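Possible regression after last week's pipeline update?

I re-ran a chain I had predicted before the update to compare outputs. Posting the input and the new output here so someone can diff against the archived version. Not blocking, just want to make sure nothing changed silently.
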Amino acid sequence: MPRKTPALRALEKNILKFRALQIVLLLHHVEALKSYVFGSIEVTESIFTKSKLDSPRHQPASKRGWKKLVEIGILTVDESNDIQSIISIRNDIGHRAHNLFCDISGPEFVLDSDPAYDYRALQRLSAYRTKIESGMRTHFVQEIGFRELSFEQAELTLLEELRRLDRRINRQMEARRRQITEGMPNNSFKPTPLRGAA
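New output (post-update):
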């Protein structure tokens, strides 16, 4: 029988909800960006390459897409590496989901080597998407899918809830700080930043 851990307080519960909503959006945006980049590259090559023998398509676009964006100057090497590190979070979601929450739900099990949760990954990925779309317009035929349209209202709803949770978490964190500070002699309490927070 699994060992019971102490029940989480309201602040910690809201942080977990915030991360869960971010993760849903991150999953969508990672797949949408990959589909857009790789699909546009392959469509362009299929139209403008004279024969398959002249084409580098023997290697799938998914294997060379980010490198190609660096080669033509749409992305820097650091930006490409960052995008791929964000994409790797998707694998963590599938195989090591507990790592994205354990610092809140089971902090006693967190190792110093465990990566901190990246609260800014979704924001960075969105900025990269804007930059990539702008750069690819002049180099590639654009592949347009219905992924974004079908998810649009869901995304707006999730973003609205994230904003609400963000305000609530900030209020709760301030109340927690006051509560702890009042119990410390000579106001000696120095709050530890939330792991992974900017």
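Follow-up from reviewer: compared with the archived run. Residues 10-183 form one domain. Marking as no regression found.
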